[in-house]
Write a structure and sequence with these properties.
Largest sheet: none
Number of helices: 6
Helix content: 55-70%
Shape: rod-shaped
Oligomer: single chain
Structural class: mainly alpha
Order of helices and strands: HHHHHH
Radius of gyration: 30 Å
Number of strands: 0
Amino acid sequence: MRGVKNFRSSALLSFFLLALPCWRVAPIALAVTEPQELLADPRLEGEAERIGAQLRCLVCQNESIEESEAPLARDLRRAVREQLREGRSEKQIMAWMQARYGDFIRLTPPFSRLTALLWATPLLALMGGFFLAWRFWTRPAEPPTLDPLAEQDDDD
Protein backbone atom coordinates (compact mmCIF):
# COMPACT_ATOMS: atom_id res chain seq x y z
CA MET A 1 0.00 0.00 0.00
CA ARG A 2 2.84 2.32 0.83
CA GLY A 3 4.52 1.71 -2.54
CA VAL A 4 1.31 2.67 -4.37
CA LYS A 5 1.08 5.92 -2.37
CA ASN A 6 4.70 6.82 -3.19
CA PHE A 7 4.09 6.03 -6.86
CA ARG A 8 1.01 8.26 -6.93
CA SER A 9 2.79 11.17 -5.26
CA SER A 10 5.81 10.87 -7.55
CA ALA A 11 3.56 10.62 -10.62
CA LEU A 12 1.64 13.69 -9.48
CA LEU A 13 4.88 15.58 -8.90
CA SER A 14 6.17 14.55 -12.33
CA PHE A 15 2.95 15.70 -13.95
CA PHE A 16 3.16 19.15 -12.35
CA LEU A 17 6.83 19.53 -13.22
CA LEU A 18 6.11 18.66 -16.84
CA ALA A 19 3.00 20.84 -16.98
CA LEU A 20 4.70 23.90 -15.47
CA PRO A 21 6.31 25.10 -18.73
CA CYS A 22 2.99 24.67 -20.54
CA TRP A 23 1.30 26.93 -18.00
CA ARG A 24 3.40 29.89 -19.18
CA VAL A 25 2.99 29.15 -22.89
CA ALA A 26 -0.76 28.47 -22.86
CA PRO A 27 -1.91 32.10 -22.26
CA ILE A 28 0.19 33.26 -25.20
CA ALA A 29 -1.54 30.85 -27.52
CA LEU A 30 -5.01 31.66 -26.16
CA ALA A 31 -4.79 35.45 -25.85
CA VAL A 32 -6.94 36.20 -28.91
CA THR A 33 -10.04 34.34 -27.83
CA GLU A 34 -12.64 35.72 -30.21
CA PRO A 35 -12.42 34.72 -33.90
CA GLN A 36 -14.05 37.99 -34.98
CA GLU A 37 -11.10 39.76 -33.39
CA LEU A 38 -8.77 38.33 -36.06
CA LEU A 39 -8.27 40.16 -39.34
CA ALA A 40 -9.19 38.37 -42.56
CA ASP A 41 -5.96 39.40 -44.31
CA PRO A 42 -3.09 37.26 -42.92
CA ARG A 43 -0.55 40.00 -43.71
CA LEU A 44 -2.50 42.58 -41.70
CA GLU A 45 -3.06 40.06 -38.90
CA GLY A 46 0.69 39.41 -38.72
CA GLU A 47 1.35 43.14 -38.57
CA ALA A 48 -1.30 43.54 -35.83
CA GLU A 49 0.36 40.78 -33.80
CA ARG A 50 3.79 42.38 -34.27
CA ILE A 51 2.47 45.78 -33.13
CA GLY A 52 0.56 44.21 -30.23
CA ALA A 53 3.71 42.40 -29.09
CA GLN A 54 5.37 45.82 -28.61
CA LEU A 55 2.55 47.26 -26.51
CA ARG A 56 2.24 46.67 -22.76
CA CYS A 57 -1.00 45.55 -21.18
CA LEU A 58 -1.75 48.31 -18.69
CA VAL A 59 -3.50 45.85 -16.38
CA CYS A 60 -0.91 43.04 -16.38
CA GLN A 61 2.07 45.37 -16.93
CA ASN A 62 4.52 42.62 -17.81
CA GLU A 63 2.68 41.14 -20.75
CA SER A 64 2.02 42.46 -24.19
CA ILE A 65 -1.55 43.09 -25.27
CA GLU A 66 -1.24 40.04 -27.53
CA GLU A 67 -0.44 37.79 -24.54
CA SER A 68 -2.92 39.24 -22.07
CA GLU A 69 -6.53 38.19 -21.64
CA ALA A 70 -7.49 41.35 -19.72
CA PRO A 71 -10.50 43.27 -21.07
CA LEU A 72 -8.38 46.38 -21.61
CA ALA A 73 -5.85 44.38 -23.64
CA ARG A 74 -8.71 43.04 -25.76
CA ASP A 75 -9.88 46.63 -26.39
CA LEU A 76 -6.36 47.71 -27.32
CA ARG A 77 -6.01 44.76 -29.73
CA ARG A 78 -9.28 45.81 -31.37
CA ALA A 79 -8.05 49.40 -31.66
CA VAL A 80 -4.80 48.26 -33.31
CA ARG A 81 -6.68 46.07 -35.80
CA GLU A 82 -9.24 48.78 -36.52
CA GLN A 83 -6.51 51.30 -37.28
CA LEU A 84 -4.76 48.79 -39.55
CA ARG A 85 -8.05 48.28 -41.44
CA GLU A 86 -8.22 52.07 -41.89
CA GLY A 87 -4.79 51.99 -43.52
CA ARG A 88 -2.66 53.51 -40.76
CA SER A 89 1.00 52.52 -40.53
CA GLU A 90 2.78 50.96 -37.56
CA LYS A 91 4.41 54.32 -36.74
CA GLN A 92 1.06 56.09 -36.73
CA ILE A 93 -0.53 53.45 -34.50
CA MET A 94 2.39 53.54 -32.05
CA ALA A 95 2.26 57.36 -31.97
CA TRP A 96 -1.49 57.25 -31.30
CA MET A 97 -1.00 54.76 -28.45
CA GLN A 98 1.83 56.82 -26.93
CA ALA A 99 -0.19 60.03 -27.18
CA ARG A 100 -3.09 58.36 -25.43
CA TYR A 101 -1.28 56.25 -22.79
CA GLY A 102 2.24 57.69 -22.59
CA ASP A 103 5.60 55.97 -23.03
CA PHE A 104 4.62 53.32 -20.48
CA ILE A 105 2.45 51.60 -23.09
CA ARG A 106 5.60 50.47 -24.91
CA LEU A 107 7.32 47.35 -23.58
CA THR A 108 10.68 48.84 -24.61
CA PRO A 109 10.49 52.57 -23.86
CA PRO A 110 12.28 54.88 -26.27
CA PHE A 111 15.63 56.35 -25.28
CA SER A 112 15.22 60.05 -24.46
CA ARG A 113 16.64 62.65 -22.12
CA LEU A 114 14.01 61.73 -19.56
CA THR A 115 14.96 58.05 -19.56
CA ALA A 116 18.73 58.57 -19.93
CA LEU A 117 19.27 58.60 -16.16
CA LEU A 118 17.18 55.45 -15.79
CA TRP A 119 19.29 53.67 -18.43
CA ALA A 120 22.58 55.01 -16.98
CA THR A 121 21.89 54.26 -13.29
CA PRO A 122 23.26 50.67 -13.30
CA LEU A 123 26.47 51.82 -15.01
CA LEU A 124 26.87 54.74 -12.59
CA ALA A 125 26.33 52.44 -9.59
CA LEU A 126 28.90 49.97 -10.92
CA MET A 127 31.45 52.73 -11.52
CA GLY A 128 30.81 54.10 -8.01
CA GLY A 129 31.36 50.66 -6.50
CA PHE A 130 34.65 50.21 -8.38
CA PHE A 131 35.79 53.66 -7.24
CA LEU A 132 35.02 52.92 -3.59
CA ALA A 133 36.79 49.55 -3.80
CA TRP A 134 39.83 51.17 -5.44
CA ARG A 135 39.95 53.87 -2.71
CA PHE A 136 39.69 51.24 0.00
CA TRP A 137 42.49 49.03 -1.37
CA THR A 138 44.89 51.79 -2.43
CA ARG A 139 44.75 54.04 0.62
CA PRO A 140 48.06 54.20 2.50
CA ALA A 141 48.36 52.20 5.65
CA GLU A 142 48.16 54.45 8.67
CA PRO A 143 51.22 54.25 10.92
CA PRO A 144 50.43 53.09 14.41
CA THR A 145 49.92 55.97 16.76
CA LEU A 146 52.26 56.03 19.71
CA ASP A 147 50.64 56.80 22.98
CA PRO A 148 53.16 58.66 25.16
CA LEU A 149 51.43 57.51 28.34
CA ALA A 150 51.78 53.87 27.31
CA GLU A 151 55.61 54.32 27.00
CA GLN A 152 55.88 55.76 30.53
CA ASP A 153 54.09 52.79 31.99
CA ASP A 154 56.64 50.43 30.38
CA ASP A 155 59.61 52.31 31.96
CA ASP A 156 58.29 52.07 35.49
